[in-house]
From TrEMBL:
SUPFAM superfamilies: Domain of the SRP/SRP receptor G-proteins (SSF47364), P-loop containing nucleoside triphosphate hydrolases (SSF52540). This is Signal recognition particle receptor FtsY. The gene is ftsY. The lineage of its organism: Bacteria, Bacillati, Actinomycetota, Actinomycetes, Micrococcales. It catalyses: GTP + H2O = GDP + phosphate + H(+). Keywords: Cell membrane, Cytoplasm, GTP-binding, Hydrolase, Membrane, Nucleotide-binding, Receptor. It is found in: Cell membrane; Cytoplasm. GO terms for biological process: SRP-dependent cotranslational protein targeting to membrane.
Amino acid sequence: MAQRWSISNALRGMFQRETITDETWDDLETALITADFGPDIAEEVVEALRADVDRLVIDDPRELKRMLRERLEERFAAYDPTLTLQERPAVILVVGVNGVGKTTTIGKLARLLASHGQSVVVGAADTFRAAAVEQLATWAQRAGVELVRPEREGQDPASVAFQTVERAKTGDIAMCIVDTAGRLQTKGGLMDELGKIRRVVEKQAPVSEVLLVLDATTGQNGVAQAQAFIEHAGVTGLVITKLDGSAKGGFVLAVQERTGIPIKLIGQGEGIDDLTGFTPHVFVEQLVG
Ligand SMILES: Nc1nc2c(ncn2[C@@H]2O[C@H](COP(=O)(O)OP(=O)(O)OP(=O)(O)O)[C@@H](O)[C@H]2O)c(=O)[nH]1
């Protein structure tokens, strides 16, 4: 079954026509804009394909579909989606606004890494809500990985992050994932706190990845969120969650190009196995059909 965020249905009529006409181009641009690529990218893609079709004297819409896949894949693949986890321990900080899916993503990522034979410890540096710690504890248990909890409610999140990395070092644990409290990108004090967490962790070990989690259903607003986090937390990769509930597959490309930060992981469900790496070829196959 096609993903909800796929544009294959929107394109169906277009590829059922015998030849490429003006309507073909209008339909394509509308499909791209509807999928939240944003008007600029939609126009660029249409213009580039139009030029190719004219130059190569093509009139078969099926050929155009192949060219659309190629062009999108080239744009998606302009950034390296590989997680950089060579350090020992490899420290991953996970940041983002409230409710985007940080804790869920950590549970899934811990499971993914553990299933590849890595030892993992997760740290509950979201110390404001006891429920947040318990939620992470449940995920850690499901993933079969160790957890470092705050010693008391309201403990400085940076100190929990520090203790988590310390635990990884003393226990010879390869991967260390630190959960942080959700925060609005407009709250300066809370954004500064992220910088502090990072500096404190770096006293123990270099930070390998700072992953910013974005909810695909927020669309272009996610770009504004991303920019503030990039400024304050030194984001190295994006995680797009809730793509399963979104009709906005194009958001993935828009946010990557506008922030210049690669998409590294994709979440498509609430289950522990619903997280994958980002593979442009596979993604575009599903997107275009
Ligand atoms: N459908 C779907 N739901 C998701 C996905 N990822 C997370 N969720 C749901 O989103 C909700 C919020 O997820 P959390 O992991 O608690 O989000 P958070 O960012 O840690 O939240 P705060 O700690 O409050 O900032 C939960 O109901 C999750 O089940 C996803 O990929 N798909």
